[in-house]
Amino acid sequence: MTTPDHPVAVMDATCALCSWGARMIHRLDRSGEVKIAPIQSETGAALMRAHGLDPVDPDTWLFIEDGTVWRDFDALIRVGQRSGGLGHVFMALKILPRRLRDWLYQRIARNRYAMFGRGDMCALPDPAFRARLLP
């Protein structure tokens, strides 16, 4: 898999929290450059494998931009920085020490279906949002 030529967020399309995150990226990224690759897609699965992650058992999400890869809350922070406006709210996560931030992310990721339920970002009817999804 080659490095994408546009920023890409790779996340679980069946997780309600991730689906919400994808909708927020769509809303906050006014440039329209950020694409979304569900891990259930061919592109998303390939990107996960390319970075040593299992697309069948996702407990992380990625943000890839200009060859740099961010994971977990660091990915969320980078998306917030990039998006500006309300996206800067995610910068508050930086006040947490990295070990605590990573631990917290893992707890949420492992329990995301129980805490937030399931969703399907690919079923969203908004054509502009669907245009961001990579196959």
**Cα-based radius of gyration, to the nearest Å:** 14 Å
The ordered string of helix (H) and strand (E) elements is: EHEHEEHHHH
Strand order of the largest sheet: 2-1-3-4
Structural class: alpha+beta
Q: What share of the residues lie within helices?
A: 40-55%
Tell me the span between the first and last alpha carbons.
Answer: 14 Å
Per DSSP, the total helix count is 6
How many independent structural domains?
1
Q: Can you offer a commentary on this structure?
A:
By secondary structure, this protein is an alpha+beta fold. The protein has one domain. It is 43% helix and 12% strand. The protein has six helices and four strands, in the order E-H-E-H-E-E-H-H-H-H. It has helices spanning 16-28, 42-50, 72-83, 98-110, 112-116, 127-132; strands at residues 8-11, 35-38, 62-65, 68-71. The protein is globular. The relative contact order is 0.23.
Please summarize what this structure is.
This protein is an alpha+beta fold and 135 residues long. The protein is built from six helices and four strands. The chain has helices at residues 16-28, 42-50, 72-83, 98-110, 112-116, 127-132; strands spanning 8-11, 35-38, 62-65, 68-71.
Main features:
135 residues, alpha+beta, four-stranded mixed beta sheet, 12% strand
Question: How are the SSEs placed, and which strands pair?
Answer:
Layout: E1 8-11, H1 16-28, E2 35-38, H2 42-50, E3 62-65, E4 68-71, H3 72-83, H4 98-110, H5 112-116, H6 127-132
Parallel strand pairs: 1-2
Antiparallel strand pairs: 1-3, 3-4
